Amino acid sequence: MAKRKPIPKEVQDELLFQSGRRCCLCYGLKHDLSVKPYGQIAHLNRNPDDNTLDNLVYLCVDHYSQVDGREGQSPVYTLGEIKRYRRGLYAEIEAVRRRGAWPTGVEVPYLSIVHPLEPVPGLAGRGIQLVDADQQLYLSLYFRTSLYHGMGLPQNAGKWLYIEAHMRPALMLRVPVRAWNDHEADGLVHFLRAGGAGQDLHGERLNNDDLSTGDYLYLWQEDGEFRLILSVFAPSQAGIALQARLTAEAAGALADYLEEVGFVEHAQPIG
Ligand SMILES: [Zn+2]
């Protein structure tokens, strides 16, 4: 029998992160959201060489044996059923992460003022700045095609958003996050225009830490507001997170900026 192709590390990382090591069948059937640290990754179509994210699912040991059992054994759960539970689980995990990071009893700045930012020669193209009415928080965003600052460094290595947050009295946070594919880039712009479930962009994840989120930008809609969390995590697990809200106009201006600078090459029509 041919040897199984190993699941690429990036795919494994993404799957473990999205599932938060929860089992989607435990979640879907029993609303059990507990972490299953010793689960396994199953191939839904039973082709062990198909290591696409859509074909993989993280399951507890019991459910793994029912889904990825020996050939010839008839499947207990339908593919569509498992995928629905998986979709529900991923959405729930995201919601839990966001709720856990949203502050209670704190006035969160509402970004409503939009400024264009001139290019910084040798460092950055033009950007966009979002500011709250009290001018407590300045969020500057620059589109880049490289993780690195400066001239002569490799470009076109992705679609990065460099975000600088300046807070009063004096604190600066700088977070690079990336759209890992065109789907994410389109999703972000679509969300900024039309709202909906939300969209996340992540930076590089820490090595050897499947449970860490890495740096991230979460954007979602709740109570009719656009909410945003920007967060950095150090290898020590110390971190800093910033929360803000956006007016629909500010969100629309950000979408315009992202389209104009080429963050989305083929903007999807809304509707
Ligand atoms: Zn399970």
Write the layout of secondary structure elements.
Layout: H1 9-19, H2 24-30, E1 40-43, E2 56-59, H3 61-67, H4 79-101, E3 110-117, E4 127-132, E5 137-144, E6 159-167, E7 171-179, H5 182-194, E8 199-202, E9 216-222, E10 225-233, E11 239-246, H6 248-260
Protein architecture, described:
This protein is of the alpha+beta class and about 270 residues long. It has two domains: about 10-100, no CATH class; about 110-260, Transcriptional Coactivator Pc4, Chain A (Transcriptional Co-activator pc4, Chain A, Roll). It has six helices and eleven strands. The strands form two sheets. The protein has a nine-stranded mixed beta sheet with strand order 7-6-5-4-3-11-10-9-8. Strand 10 (about 225-235) and strand 11 (about 240-245) form a beta hairpin. The longest helix has 23 residues, at about 80-100. It is globular. Residues about 265-270 have low confidence and may be disordered. Zinc ion binds near residues 23, 25, 59 and 63.
Task: Offer a concise description of the structure.
With 271 residues, the protein is of the alpha+beta class. The chain contains six helices and eleven strands.
